[in-house]
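Q: Give me the 3D complex with fe (ii) ion.
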Amino acid sequence: MTSSSKEAIAERLAETRRRTLELIAPLDDEQLNRVYSSLLSPLAWDLGHIANFEELWLVRTIGDREPLHGELGRLYDAIENPRRTRGELPILRDAELRAYLAEVRERTLEVLTEADIGADVGDPLLRDGFVYEMLIAHEQQHNETMLQLLQMVDGYEVPRGTGHLSPGQASGQLARRFEYPPVQEMPRASGTVRIDTGSYGIGAPANGFAYDNERPRHTVELAPFEIDSWPVTNGEYARFIEDTGAEPPLYWERDGEDWIRTAMGRRDPVDPAQPVIHVSWHEADSFARWAGKRLPTEQEWEAAYDRLEGVGETWEWTASDFLAYRGFEPFPYREYSEVFFGGAYKVLRGGSWATQLNVMRPSFRNWDLPERRQIFAGIRCARDGA
Ligand SMILES: [Fe+2]
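A: Here is the predicted complex, encoded as structure tokens.
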């Protein structure tokens, strides 16, 4: 790989880090360390985990170097340390934490200058810079997790601007994706897309960056179905609440006859035209049944992807359990996907306003527990076709 490609990787690493630091710039150390919810890590844990994951892969694994802080990595292991315990761990904090982020990055860049990351390298971790793509995506995905917690910080304002997008992407609908609250004006046609019976390609192609759970690409046979062009709106969800007595989404409060949103300590009217967000899988499933429809399977969602509107404002719960595709091979480590396969987690597709574009692709599979509401998740309905 040429030095200019390495420069491009270094620049993308730097751009991703700028975004991370921009997110926390308005916060003091007390806020970074505070446990706001047992369902979410304190921000200091996310930051240390980002640096530690980078040290593990880009410094220790690729560069064969010793860690800066001995066995510190155990504290940042996401599986060993459930979120409810992370506030109590003796993790790095304050100036020490900032120094760790910077020192790891310095070593990462040293190792990058020596690394062989061409297209014909034997090690799949290095081939085409896979491990660097993985690290960039990891940090970007943690930005979204951090934004979930930042909903609870009174007075927090999500930084505006689209500095993390490459110039060709920073236009129109995509650029607006990153403003908060989402400002995309949607033509509210209540259309549906009809998908005919047939064979559909599912999953990521063999080349290019993707996670192990998106492969191998394969074909599925689908029966005909219809899927809504647009995600379910706040207005539609409010009618569901009136009709059934269902719980309102997270951060909704009654204000007389109306609903208001209370995230980040603000009290804004709920916009009936925007997609509903912060609902659990159980609520999404109930809504779909109430509407005489159902949630799409993840295969249906992916088959219909090109014809859907509104993708990218909210993750969309699907009917599917998070399972391995036939022929799945764990890479580069079992704990990314394999340990989550089974019936416990439901697949979400698409991406939310808080998801960075680099992470969004038709084959990307997000997953979470069906009771989770703090994630930026909403609903799109489907039904069997004739
Ligand atoms: Fe992580």
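A quick observation: Residues 49, 53, 78, 138, 142 surround fe (ii) ion (CB under 6 Å).
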